[in-house]
Amino acid sequence: MSNLPEVKIGVVAVSRDCFPESLSVNRRKALMKAYTEKYGTDSVYECPVCIVESEIHMVQALEDIKKAGCNALCVYLGNFGPEISETLLAKHFDGPAMFIAAAEETQNDLVGGRGDAYCGMLNASYNLKLRNVKAYIPENPVGTAAECADMLHEFISVARAIVGLSDLKIISFGPRPLNFLACNAPIKQLYNLGVEIEENSELDLFEAFKKHDGDERIPAKVKEMEAELGAGNHKPEVLPKLAQYELTLLDWIEAHRGYRKYVAIAGKCWPAFQTQFGFVPCYVNSRLTGMGIPVSCEVDIYGCLSEFIGTCVSADTVTLLDINNTVPDDMYEESIKGKFNYTHNDTFMGFHCGNTNSKKLTSCNMKYQMIMARTLPEEVTQGTLEGDIVPGDITFYRLQSTADNKLRAYIAQGEVLPVATRSFGGIGIFAIPEMGRFYRHVLIEKNFPHHGAVAFGHFGKALYEVFKYIGVPVEDLNFNQPKGMLYPTENPFA
Question: Phi and psi at residue 322, in whole multiples of 5°?
Answer without folding.
Answer: -75, 135
